[in-house]
Amino acid sequence: PPQATATASDTAGSGDAEQQVQSNGAAPVVRFEDDFRENPPKNKGYARGPRPRRTSIAVVLGLDWRQQRDLTVSERYRQPGNLRHAEVDDEHGKSEFFLTLLLQSVEDSLPLFVGTILFLLVWALLCSFCAQLLRDQAAADAVAAYADQDTEEVASRAKQWLEDITECKSAVSIIGTLFVFTLVFRFNACYDRWWESRIFWGDIITKCIDLGVMNRRWFNHEDLQNQISRFIVVYSFACKALLRGTSLNEEGGDGPRLVERGLLSQQELDLMDGSPSWQPFFCLETLRAIVVQIYGIPDMKGFKPGTSKLQAQIFRNFDNNLKDLNTLIGSCVRVRASGLPASYDAITMTSFVTFFLLASVVWSVAIGWMTPIIVFFASVIIMFLILMGTKLVDPFGLDKVDIPMESFCAQIEAQLRAIDERNETIIEVTSDAARSGLRRRSMFDTSG
Residues 319-347: pLDDT tens digits? Predict the structure, then answer.
């Protein structure tokens, strides 16, 4: 039989929704339209091609994502045991050999890493060789001084060089202290950015799950509830794409796989790709439009029975969560876009090289041929810290140290699927509990 198409127009700055139903034999669609300017702002999204004046948000009602098998999310997120436990970030990496992890952390900066270490090592070898020549010359001049008093001036000159270099220990120690302070401060700043991003994503996971629970507990329209669940999941994948500088529909993006798994229709994906906006905000706008559509159902039949006095509070709570998700992705974009000043990185590298150039000269006089060994291991450790901090500056990439956004998106999808699948079970449990309570009260009243 022909299926209905519901259309709602939601203009900017207005919460009114107008519903129109027609029979055309097509798949059920809820369409929300927004007018944009004649020349919409550029560089607000990753869409390609000319910008349309009118961009519409189409939500396919007949798409039930719960009936689709997940083709990309790891099987561990679909096992009941793992759904009951919080996943550990980079659990696989914690079991790897530490040298393997270190090499993986610098693999894309290997030329800089190796070149810097080799330069400092060659310089340390040269300093040790020159220091050895000075010691040999000072010893030879000291022996000759006993036989010929004319060589006393030469002997004091070689010895004076060694003494002057040894006296530079205090100056080099001051430079080393300043360098260590700069290095530690930079690494802490980089780690703070990584940790801040991890907190933001933890809040995103919590808010998405909270929205999924509110959706199933409060609303009472199966098709629109399915769309809310779908776009909550799509929001997380859109966040991941935005923070990596891509879009869902670009080559290698998650868009085609989301369509394959029933989380998006191809029509919805094309509209998202053509919209002059960041895709996470597109998802949030769509969620708000669906909620307005639920409120527009006559006689408040879009809500669960018994919530007639809570509808204003329900809307407020749901909208507050959407505002929080809007703020969270904005904060993540700020972290990604800000970075550290390039001059600060230049100062760190300059102080690093300067310290080891001077320290090699002083250490070669005191410890001789042990200098290259000390310089090699110390410079390797410090270079690891510098490069590790550089990777922590942008925590949304694909490096080993970056936060696992794939895992977070998979967890959100798995939890939303679990919420939707247990919906009927929760209703059955609460109904049984209510009936049991009525029986107990009846027995109590009879005995009284």
Answer: 999 999 999 999 999 999 888 888 888 88
